[in-house]
């Protein structure tokens, strides 16, 4: 039987099925690990601006124990002006059904067994049916700092593909990545505050990221 997409999602003006968590939901992590790009939304003086960005997701780093998203941009870009004045940003990610070898430069080869292929296709289908809206606070890493150097290296490594553009139909070079870490760029660090998962059936779930409470006498 054919299934039709809903014409509207469930009411989501407030918190919808809200939960708190100390770690990002598994679906969001998978989305961030498999999406090729994120849409970055900034706003200044009630005028929104959206950019398509390369990005790097880090669950933790030497400079943060919380999950963050790294991006780079021209220091004279509109998004820089917006986030400096208003650090509140939103990111939208929706994973593309790519085999792991195309989605990540360090991923293992695609399984060849029929069962493994079936599971991979099922997982890709499930993942491509959701989207994740991520809200957070953006800041610029201090120029020439160890933090900036570390994040630049991580971002460049994560966005270097031996096979070129995974979407290209031939070996012809694609348009250069807009946020390739070359020349005079600024590193943008987004500290994740909350996420919203939307599925193709219209379901919406909200998650708020909270810091894990320290242990006191072995208990929280």
Task: Please describe the structure with a list of short key phrases separated by commas or semicolons.
220 residues; alpha+beta; Pnp Oxidase, Chain A; 9-stranded mixed beta sheet; 5 helices; 9 strands; PMP_oxidase-like; Pyridox_Oxase_N
Whole-angstrom Rg? 19 Å
Helix proportion range? 10-25%
C-alpha geometry: globular
Oligomer: single chain
CATH level 3 topology: Pnp Oxidase, Chain A
For the secondary structure, the number of strands is: 9
**Span between termini:** 50 Å
Assign the CATH architecture: Roll
Q: Domains counted in the coordinates: how many?
A: 1
Q: Beta-strand level of the residues, as a percent range?
A: 25-35%
CATH class term = Mainly Beta
Count of helical stretches: 5
What is the H/E order? EHEEEEHEHHEHEE
- Average pLDDT number: 79
Major sheet summary line: 9 strands, mixed
What structural class do the secondary elements suggest? alpha+beta
């Amino acid at each position: 039987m054919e299934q039709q997409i809903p014409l509207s999602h469930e009411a989501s003006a407030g918190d919808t099925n809200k939960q708190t968590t100390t770690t990002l939901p598994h679906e969001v992590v998978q989305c961030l690990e498999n999406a090729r790009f994120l849409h970055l939304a900034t706003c200044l003086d009630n005028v929104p601006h959206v950019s398509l960005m390369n990005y790097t997701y880090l669950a933790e780093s030497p400079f943060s124990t919380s999950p963050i998203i790294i991006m780079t941009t021209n220091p004279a870009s509109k998004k820089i002006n917006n986030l400096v004045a208003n650090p509140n940003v939103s990111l939208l990610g929706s994973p593309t059904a790519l085999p792991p070898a195309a989605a990540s430069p360090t991923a293992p080869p695609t399984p060849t067994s029929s069962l493994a292929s079936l599971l991979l296709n099922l997982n890709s289908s499930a993942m491509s049916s959701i989207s994740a809206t991520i809200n957070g606070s953006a800041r610029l890493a201090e120029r020439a700092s160890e933090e900036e150097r570390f994040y630049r290296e991580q971002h460049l490594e994560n966005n270097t593909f031996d096979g070129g553009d995974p979407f290209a139909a031939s070996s012809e070079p694609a348009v250069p990545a807009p946020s390739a870490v070359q020349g005079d760029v600024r590193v943008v660090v987004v500290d994740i505050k909350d996420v919203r998962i939307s599925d193709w059936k219209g379901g919406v779930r909200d998650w708020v990221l909270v810091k894990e409470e320290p242990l006191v006498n072995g208990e929280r």
